[in-house]
Amino acid sequence: MFYKIICPIARFIVWVLNGHLHIHHKNRLPKGNYILVAPHRTWWEPILFALGASPMEFMFMAKIELFKNPVLRFILDHVHAFPVDRKKPGPSALKIPVKGLRKGELSLIIFPSGTRHSAELKGGALLISKMSQKPMVPVVYQGPLSFKGLLKQKGLEVNFGDPITIDRKTKLTHENEKIIYQQLEDAWKKLDDELDPNFHYVAK
After folding, report:
1. Mean pLDDT for the stretch of residues 36-44
2. Phi, psi of 56, rounded to the nearest 5 degrees
3. Predicted TM-score of the model (pTM)
4. Which of 106, 123, 147, 152 has a 20 to 30 Å separation from 48 between CA atoms?
5. So what's the pLDDT on residue 2?
């Protein structure tokens, strides 16, 4: 219930701050639930992705430090966020999203690079997709990368791609992971080109 209440509030705040959220190719989203997989460019991307794909509700990974604040913890708990220790992720980083996805009620937003300042892709997204048997949907954001830029009301562009499915029989060897991640990289490049072929992300 809290998620359904907070979504229109978040949409209103985005509209007040910027007013130019544009969603592209929402028709590519599959029926049922799925995993949105994106390169990490800003801290507000999860909000925009969730708004763009609504009414689907999403789970989020959040760093464990955020849950130390009781008020923030209450909000995070009620928007389906779950804590992850980046230094020692532990089995819960996989079990919680896989269990949620298997139930079929929630989707997941995940950034394989982990942080905005890393281009190295990690295997968690692939393993979650295989274990849950839910497709990965590549998605990209183009737009302001700073809060100051956001207030200048430059366009916020979200572009959804075609689903990528990992067969249950596929072994996630190092070579197979490289092949699938190349698929994701190619999909992100295609989505960026659809929005703006001259776009080049530079971490702030």
Report:
1. 93
2. -55, 140
3. 0.89
4. 123
5. 86
As beta bridge partners, residue 61 has 82
CB 98 within 8 A of CB 131: yes
Whole-angstrom distance, CA of residue 129 vs CA of residue 90? 17
Phi, psi of 77 (to 5 degrees): -60, -35
CA pair distance 76, 9, nearest whole angstrom: 15
Please give the Cα distance from 196 to 55 (Å, whole number). Answer: 27
| Alpha-helix residue ranges (DSSP H) falling in the chain | 2-17, 45-52, 70-78, 92-103, 124-132, 147-151, 174-195
* Sign for the pseudo-dihedral over CA of 181, 186, 191, 192: positive
Q: Is 52:160 a contact under the CB 8 Å cutoff? A: yes
Q: How would residue 196 be classed by pLDDT, with cut points 50, 70 and 90?
A: very high
What is the rounded radius of gyration, in angstroms, for the C-alpha atoms of the chain? 16
Which residues are CB-neighbours of 86 under 8 A, at least 6 positions away? 63, 64, 114
Residues 142 and 192 sit within 8 Å (Cβ to Cβ):
yes
